[in-house]
Amino acid sequence: MKEIAKGWQDFWAEFFRIKHRHSIKGIREWEKKLVTHIIEVLDLKKGSRILDLGCGGGDQALEFARRDMSVVGVDIAKVLVDYGNEAARRENLSVKLIQGDMKDVKFQDEFDACIIISSFGFFDDDGNIKVLQVIEKALKHGGKFYVRVLNPFKYVSIKVKEGWKGWAEVDNGYVLMDSNYNPLTGEATDTFFYITPNGELIKFNPKDESVSVTWRLYTLPEIIKLIKAAALVFKAAYGSMELPPEEYKISSKEMIVVGEKS
Hints:
Order of helices and strands: EHHEHEHEEHEHEEEEEHEE
Number of strands: 13
Number of helices: 7
Mean pLDDT: 94
Distance between the termini: 56 Å
CATH class of the domain at 24-151 and 217-261: Alpha Beta
Structural class: alpha/beta
Low-confidence stretches: none
Strand content: 25-35%
Shape: globular
Helix content: 25-40%
Strand order of the largest sheet: 4-3-2-5-6-13-12
């Protein structure tokens, strides 16, 4: 079997964030449910201006825009930015995606809300604080933020303790995804391979420094500490996208952290 190493920009971004994501059964309904939850807990209105960090191909951004809001999205992968901008153009939606590193973009007092969906924790503590500082600068006075991450306790108990790994059929081939957790660092590392229809094995290129496959799983007290270090105010934590909002618990599937700019 021929093995090929490819990086995030030239293969995996489009593969995971477009091809794989859009093949997941019920993903469109999930997107709508997520956006509805964000609007409810942040009390967003028509005309709200939103910053979406780590926006991928713009799935949430497009849904917000369909509800008469405007969105600026930031993602490291050009292929995803191009995809989302073209989708917005086709629907004539108020969405603008730009390519960039989420911890380095510069906005000042522009947005009513900022969201990060499953893209927080890919840097060290200082880098993750920089991301939160970007949010603090970008938000208007009283602007709100919504950060959705995995609940570390649930992740460890299900995906690691039980030895989670999984196959999925994507684009007529098969992808294997595996995750491992380091209890000394609190970090999870993803491993993934793709077997193409013609039998090639595509692996992630370890020399690709544009994106990390290791990410920090923060507990709630730890993430609150980062929020305070970025001069933001923690308001609440939820354990799911259900409405009415469910309070975060150690057994919750996910951890959604909400706060504001003081």
